[in-house]
Specification:
This protein is α+β, with helices and mostly antiparallel strands. The protein is built from two helices and ten strands, in the order H-E-E-E-E-E-H-E-E-E-E-E.
């Protein structure tokens, strides 16, 4: 009888811990850089951020080759010349939401997330502003911020420095739902 009682308690604790983990149903990461010759834009729709609502921990792995450009040649240059995607296939963000959020109440909350952003193998401390929206059992995360290429040792050839900006604007939007173990 004690064993059955302990198993029931363990099952409830495990179920509660999974209920606090949210995973992206959809996630879109866009970047855009205005250039005098040609604007540079791409979108990545395969990332799956994880959010632990109990701790505020947020994690994201971004596959660099999943950024899609309008022009295949731009995509090739991005992966081979700038991001060196064979050597650095992923970017990562691991951080924590600084504000306390009541995830049981629908609403829109301005938040900051502090953590480590790793791009091109270079890790930088970042605090990123965004909006967290709670709608029922869904959490929407959105943010717009800049990434400076030099901060992550991304080299722009001197011949192209006049037409390629020193930074890019990142737009992040993700819809997360409770993680359900199959």
């Amino acid at each position: 009888m004690k064993k059955i009682f302990l198993l029931i308690i363990l099952a409830v604790l495990i179920a509660r811990s999974f209920a606090q983990i949210y995973i992206a149903k959809t996630c879109e990461i866009n970047f855009f850089s205005a250039s005098p010759v040609e604007n540079i834009a791409a979108v990545n729709k395969v990332s799956k951020p994880l959010l632990n609502t109990a701790t505020g921990d947020l994690q994201l792995k971004i596959v660099m080759t999943a950024f899609i450009f309008e022009k295949p040649l731009m995509q090739e240059h991005f992966n081979e010349n700038y991001m060196e995607s064979e050597k650095f296939p992923n970017a990562f963000f691991k951080g924590k939401i600084n504000e306390k959020i009541d995830y049981t109440k629908d609403g829109e909350y301005k938040v900051t997330v502090s953590g480590k952003l790793t791009i091109h193998g270079v890790e930088k401390d970042r605090t990123i502003e965004g909006v967290l929206t709670v709608k029922g059992h869904v959490i929407i995360l959105s943010s717009t911020f800049k990434v400076v290429f030099a901060d992550h040792d991304i080299k722009i050839p001197s011949l192209q420095a006049a037409v390629i900006p020193a930074d890019t604007e990142i737009k992040f939007n993700a819809i997360l739902e409770p993680f359900k173990k199959n």
